[in-house]
Amino acid sequence: MFFKWTARAILVGAYIAACIYAVVTDTGPIGWFNYAQQSLFGSYSQKLTMLAVIVVSVAVLAPLWALIDAAARKMGVSEPNRDVLGVHEPLKLTKTGLLMSSLVAIPLIWIGGYAIYWYYQHEHQTDAAASYEPVRLARGQAAPAASGAYLSVSGRLLWERTVALTKGSSKTVEYTLVPLVAEGWRDNEPVPFVVRVDPGNRYLAERATRGREAVLGHAEGAVGVPAAQEFGKMEVPVGDQTRHLRLVPSENGVPRIKDSAAGDWQIYTWGSAGLSVFYVFMMLVVIAAMANQARKDRKAALRAAAPPGATRR
């Protein structure tokens, strides 16, 4: 039982941490699904995204869950014994399972939360200390090869042709994708970069555009297919050669990174504590439900085992 509970807790904890990271950073399949909703409906719904995550999670975790059971059987891990009436003793086993799973799951929640906190702080520190390679764009040409991921690009941000990812019916803007092209760019000419601009950094990006300053950013792979399709409708050809650039806020060509360590730490501690309390609460609810069902099953078994005509005093 210990092996199975521990393996399952680790599996679920790791999967939840990966999902939280994907939701927070809007990357991977979750980011692509949000883009697809944006293309179809004009905005995306976090509820629909979470529903899709749950469905996919069941499809992914169910086979892994079965593999854990198979591995336990091969290791000779036996199932819990039945009592003389053939009824499981769920309350005792659930308490043991709760203890074992909590000893694994709750530390995983805090470790996963700290990993996300560390990632963002490390990203901010790296952005501030990085050496940005200068890149000058030329009309009709793809982005020149660069030796590193941190770039200082001299070009023009096309604010008149953007794709904004908006959340829900409120149309709250999560971030805006802005093409970064050479001066004098015309319709259907190559687009070397697409820059992701968060709402809090937009004013700095617009200021850099007006001042003809270089745009600082971190190259992070290709542009999502749904977003590329939206740009195609605006005669902005975004293809396989177009690179996604995460904007690094700057002023006069120098990174201007806001110190968010205190706020991020507070989010980490409150978030991890809240998830831990919720986990324990849900386990207690499960224990209470199983204990109540066990009492009902035991009473039913006693009534079935009683001789006909017997009366209970």
Give a written overview of the molecule:
- With 313 residues, the chain is an alpha+beta fold.
- The chain folds into 2 domains: 2-127 and 262-298, no CATH class; 131-247, no CATH class.
- The chain contains 7 helices and 10 strands.
- Strands 1, 2, 3, 4, 5, 6, 7 and 8 form an 8-stranded mixed beta sheet that branches. The chain has a two-stranded antiparallel ribbon with strand order 9-10.
Major sheet description:
8 strands, mixed
Strand content: 15-25%
Order of helices and strands: HHHHEEEEEEHEHEEEH
Task: Output mean pLDDT.
Answer: 75
Q: What is the CA-based Rg, rounded?
A: 27 Å
Tell me the number of strands: 10
Weakly predicted, low-confidence segments = 77-93
Structural class: alpha+beta
Q: How would the global form be characterised? A: elongated
Give the end-to-end Cα distance, rounded to a whole number of Å. 39 Å
The helix tally amounts to 7
Amount of helix: 40-55%
The domain tally reads: 2
Summarize the structure.
This protein is α+β, with helices and mostly antiparallel strands. Helices cover 54% and strands 15% of the residues.
